[in-house]
């Protein structure tokens, strides 16, 4: 926990919280333009959030404190991950929390709490969303942890700051087979964890096609605002992790204003580019059947396993 | 016999060394002797007192026995040395030898802690209807659990092992008059535990036959001189026996049968304290006595552990009986600990002592964390069974209203059991995965293939565990009750809540400051002769020694709480907000939602079942009865769906059929004719005399 | 294809006020709309679909269709309210968090249209829930629907 890390943490707290709805707006705008529409504008998600915060809060009958606490837990886990993962600098605001396993498990904790809140409502849609979300979470874990394994072999640690620093100081590593395979695997994981097409359609109205949306059908007003903000921040965190781990250019290594400004700009630019690419891809893809999702995840798991194997066999046993 | 032995031995020696008892015997032996004496006294009193007081005496005595045992264990792991006790003549062949080193002390401490919570719980659970045998045998079971890690010779170990099996069997049978399934489950348990005993007996006797004497010291001295074939045979036999006790696949079939049918406090003791002793035996014999051996032993153990973990959690995810779910989860956690033990042994044989220590430390920490959350979960499940009268998750639900404390306890236990921060299992699984990940450096090809597969198995079990416990907690406790029993559930009495509270507090301490117990684990690792230290340390931040890696569950939890409080305060401070309105649940505007419309545990697990249906092979039966008048009209349809244990189907049933066929065939040897039986005796004696005459 | 055709959405028409007396909504340019079919022939639904489609693109004014009334600020009600849908419509209105608006789209929702007096009809939308804005037509043109949406969002 040094000054670089703390500065980075503060900057990230502001940028991720403020910029997450902007990223959502950019992605919706990219989709709209590619579909030939005019689009809502990139400031619309912030208007939505502002309006939601002014609306009435509702507690459905029969739900418990878990239902009221779940949006707070979701926001807290996502915010903690956003502050501690090194996006802007190579150091983390809280080194002991920036372990890759801890961050992944923290994000899973948020999802699990939301699933429990969905079960708490006692509606069939809540149970359905929770069941599907938990199935996808269970199947994504092996890919995630084995990709982390592949990434940590080179850096000698699962600490995110160490991995990012190692990648920044040797960017050529990014093109190695292990890194490329891990990148594809983590790309699929990002799509699955954030609920984008082809795993889940975030804009669907058909409950039978919902995964994430089905869990939040009962939320209104400020609770919904927290959940929407946390979902966009989650997307930023995952895209930011992809950019820090595989596109290390621009990350600040020193505590100078120029380097920090460059780090912030690079982070914003990379995440926006990745998000726009994701949105553009969504225009050309359809959501796959829920029972085909395990095949997709199994494919990504094989890629992650190949990444570990290549990181060992292609460099020899003595790394 | 055995629980009294340390008492007798200590008393025998103490009568000669009374003035210097503190200095000479240390703290461990008096504490253990106290535990044994307390157990015996409690058992006798429970038999004697009237029914009203039976549960209180039995429960309180068990809790005190556990406390004394925990004190003994803590004394042993904090470095208090204690001498070996040797009392020849008490048992045939070799007498009793007892010694408590830090490794045994760790298991004794865990058992003692579990027994305290279970004893307090048993006061309220057994209540007015406590039967004499189960009340009296409970403290004896705890005493036998405390005695097994203290055994220092093969015969002592086997005697204590058998005592543990007998007492637990009697406890499992406690409710057999009320339910016939209990007898079936007890039969499975009895047969499998004794088959395990036979394997352990064969292994240890083979070992002792090649050594001079059967005390552990003699065995350890003789081990370097044994041929690899003998050592491997011993290891495999001991693996089968101890692995069966730990619930490793494919010898796990007794676990999901015995744990649901036993009374809940007994299930907690069995799952949280007894199965650990299988792991203790593996570590003791494999590393401590046999001294490591070949790498393939440990690779086999890792493979078995990984398969058990995945299979166990898969069965738990499919299970709708909450206690069977917890029993299958025990198989999973024992599998994970075995992966740690196997990795420790593997790294020790390939010359990476730091990693070996880290892996074994992860396994030992997982033993403790599993004991804490499994106790909590079983006690909460027992509380539900006590109040609602059913274990079926598809018939529970809505318990939050009537049983808020139990709901909180089970919720905390579920978080602790899934590998999510700030839960308890997160820390031990983090250590385990760190040990596996850092092992790739400088590894052989076999290791380089095994380690990523082991990591993926651990990851899959972690993911499935989250899904399983969300299912268990969500469908069992939240939303609306699905049956009349669940609707009528009321909170448990205070003693049961106290037991759950103790277990919950232990989970919290292990979750937030696991570094506090790591020095003790380091001494246990050293006593197992795997490595010199635990490889990790630090109270607020858990740091790996010599390797890059750190995590701080305390900082993480504090950060989460700060953000939650800040977000809640900011929301409250926002202007222009009306008060929170209570509204009708959004049911799409149609009729009121009934409990039948909720998701059940079966439906929750259905997508997972579909994904894994090649492994699980679920069976469905559909019987359709048509009307007599028209075959196009259906009068009734009956649907049965179940997920069988596939290993039982494929492995056990052929064996059982073969044994049954042999039994039937052997019946022909006993047709009932007295002449035939006399003839058997005559021919046997005549044949024996001829053989003796020829071979003389 | 997009490169060949380019933008499909028509340019926004000049803003006109809809039915007099419709109050502007204090929702800050963001309105989530839940559509309720209270007994419609689906003619209005087709026009609403066109209004939110690429050509008229009502979303660019800050409106969005959502899946649950809890997420919504406004209800669009189409069709005459049948007897079976009267109570569900009331419950849907109750499920929307305040502040909320209701827009009755089509002649059936306004005054029962051609189905006035039929046996299965409970009334117009205004008889069941308080209506804030109306869009006349059978079916109304998408431009009229877009104008009503713009009244709601104020953009």
Explain how this protein is built.
The complex is a heterotrimer of chains A (319), B (696) and C (155). Chain A is mostly helical and 319 residues long. Chain A has eleven helices and one strand, in the order ααβααααααααα. Chain A has one domain. Chain B is mainly α and 696 residues long. Chain B has a domain at 646-657 and 669-695. In chain B, the strands form three sheets. A three-stranded antiparallel β-sheet of chain B has the order 3-4-5, with no helix packed on it. A two-stranded antiparallel sheet of chain B has the order 1-2. In chain B, strands 7-8 form a two-stranded antiparallel sheet. In chain B, strand 7 and strand 8 form a beta hairpin. In chain B, helix 1 crosses helix 3 (28-48), helix 7 (154-172) packs antiparallel against helix 8 (181-210) and helix 15 (353-388) runs antiparallel to helix 17 (404-417). In chain C, 30% of the residues lie in helices and 18% in strands. In chain C, strand 1 (31-37), helix 2 and strand 2 (63-65) form a beta-alpha-beta unit. Chain C has six helices and seven strands. In chain C, the strands form two sheets. Chain C has a five-stranded parallel β-sheet, with helices on both faces. A two-stranded antiparallel sheet of chain C has the order 4-6. With 155 residues, chain C is an alpha/beta fold. Chains in contact: A-B, A-C, B-C. Strand 1 of chain A pairs parallel with strand 6 of chain B, so a sheet runs across the interface.
SSE arrangement:
The complex is a heterotrimer of chains A (319), B (696) and C (155).
Chain A: H1 3-34, H2 44-54, E1 58-60, H3 65-84, H4 100-121, H5 124-155, H6 160-169, H7 177-194, H8 212-215, H9 221-246, H10 257-284, H11 293-313
Helix pairs in contact in A: 1-3, 1-9, 1-10, 2-9, 3-4, 3-9, 4-5, 5-6, 5-7, 5-11, 7-9, 7-11, 9-10
Chain B: H1 4-17, H2 21-25, H3 28-48, H4 51-77, E1 85-87, E2 96-98, H5 102-126, H6 132-147, H7 154-172, H8 181-210, H9 216-222, H10 228-246, H11 255-261, H12 264-289, H13 295-318, H14 322-349, H15 353-388, H16 399-402, H17 404-417, H18 424-438, H19 445-477, H20 484-487, H21 494-512, H22 518-527, E3 536-537, E4 542-544, E5 550-551, H23 553-573, E6 581-583, H24 601-611, H25 613-616, E7 619-626, E8 634-642, H26 646-666, H27 674-695
Antiparallel strand pairs in B: 1-2, 3-4, 4-5, 7-8
Helix pairs in contact in B: 1-3, 3-4, 3-6, 4-5, 4-6, 5-6, 5-12, 5-15, 5-21, 5-22, 6-7, 7-8, 7-12, 8-10, 8-11, 10-12, 11-12, 11-14, 12-14, 12-15, 13-14, 13-19, 14-15, 14-18, 14-19, 15-17, 15-18, 15-21, 15-22, 17-19, 17-21, 18-19, 18-21
Chain C: H1 2-5, E1 31-37, H2 43-51, E2 63-65, E3 74-78, E4 81-82, H3 83-95, E5 101-105, H4 107-111, E6 121-123, H5 125-128, E7 133-135, H6 142-153
Helix pairs in contact in C: 2-6
